[in-house]
Amino acid sequence: MRCKSCNGEGLIRCPECSGEGIDYGIHKCETCAGEGEMACSTCQGSGKIGLFERLKSKV
Ligand SMILES: [Zn+2]
Ligand SMILES: [Zn+2]
Fold first, then answer.
1. How many domains does the chain have?
2. What are the 10-residue block averages of pLDDT along the chain, 59 residues in total?
3. Nearest ligand atom owner, CA of 49
4. Which InterPro entries match (predicted)?
């Protein structure tokens, strides 16, 4: 499924797909704003966060 926010262009700053271009549940980490900080426990420093981790972090 093509990302609606960047129209599948995969913009690195796109908050919906974080540069993937395809919206399959990978979003920019909100805890570190996609910076991917090593200390960020939400995204493990990747700056991206999957749908599963998103749901898990809300619990
Ligand atoms: Zn996008
Ligand atoms: Zn993070």
1. 1
2. 85 77 74 85 84 59
3. 2
4. HSP_DnaJ_Cys-rich_dom_sf
Q: Which ligand is nearest to the CA of 33?
A: 2
Which domain, by its residues, includes 51?
1-59
Whole-number pLDDT of residue 11: 84
Task: With beta carbons less than 8 A apart as the criterion, state whether 34 and 18 touch.
Answer: yes
C-alpha distance across the termini of the chain, in Å: 27
Chain centre to alpha carbon of residue 25: 8
Q: How far is the CA of 22 from the centre of ligand 1 (A)?
A: 7
**Residues with Cβ–ion distance below 5 A, ligand 2:** 29, 31-32, 40, 42-43
